[in-house]
Amino acid sequence: MGLDGKVVVVTGGTRGVGAGVARAFAEAGADVVVCARRPPDVPLPGVEFGALDLRAPEAVRAFFAALPRLDVLVNNAGGTPYRRLTDTDAERHARVIELNLVAPLTASLAAYEHLRRAGGSVVMIGSVSGSRPSPGSAAYGAAKAGLENLARSMAVEWAPEVRVNTLVVGMVRTELAHLHYGGEDGIAGVSRTVPLGRLAEPADVGAAAVFLASDAAAYISGASLLVHGGGERPAFLDAATVNKEA
């Protein structure tokens, strides 16, 4: 994949999808640094940890300025609690947008000079929430929609030195998935709604990120790669065919 010896930073790469991405790059031969507020609970072989609050712009700029080199930035840090719009105020929703949209922009700008010199790339970890209604996580969905659009603009502004792409990720079976989906029975039920019959594993997202950062994707920029197992079966199909035998 042409990643041997490349330096890769994965934001929020200490658990879940981020840890899967970090492992995938390490297995591809890259030198990987993950940055988050807390170190990983389980050590990641071949991966270095750097403490960083991605919502602190000066700290982010200092972190990237201290790197001797950078070839790939994976903007993975993000997330949201379940919160309906009227359950809190706009300021609380704005914090979700800050983490999922403003922080990746801050990191990308801080990393730009490194990436330009290296002819590197940025991989945004987006979400299907950015392209469909997201009740209970509306601010998150709006931020992910903005992130995908930001990546397309960055791809144009920063070409040809830096490539920028987005992974549009669906449901993933992380170590916290049982809490989100209601245990193993819930995971099984949700998996049946995915055409490929299962939730993604973090390694699936990692493999896609490695591809977009690799020489194999050297002519791919401004793209959005769907990593969602075929999408979701439209609910209206079951309703429309309930009496098909008649």
List the helices and strands and how they pair.
Blueprint (H helix, E strand, L loop, with lengths): L6 E5 L4 H12 L3 E6 L10 E5 L5 H9 L6 E4 L14 H29 L2 E7 L10 H20 L5 E7 L7 H5 L1 H9 L10 H12 L10 E4 L7 H6 L6
Parallel strand pairs: 1-2, 1-4, 2-3, 4-5, 5-6, 6-7
Protein name: Short-chain dehydrogenase
Organism: Streptomyces curacoi
Family: Belongs to the short-chain dehydrogenases/reductases (SDR) family.
What does this structure look like?
It comes from Streptomyces curacoi. Residues 6-190 form the Ketoreductase domain. Keywords: Oxidoreductase. This protein has helices spanning 16-27, 57-65, 90-118, 138-157, 177-181, 183-191, 202-213, 235-240; strands spanning 7-11, 31-36, 47-51, 72-75, 121-127, 163-169, 224-227. By secondary structure, it is an alpha/beta fold. The chain has one domain (7-233): 3-Layer(aba) Sandwich (Rossmann fold), CATH 3.40.50.720. The chain has a 7-stranded parallel beta sheet, sandwiched between helices. Helix 2 packs parallel to helix 3 (90-118) and helix 3 runs parallel beside helix 4 (138-157).
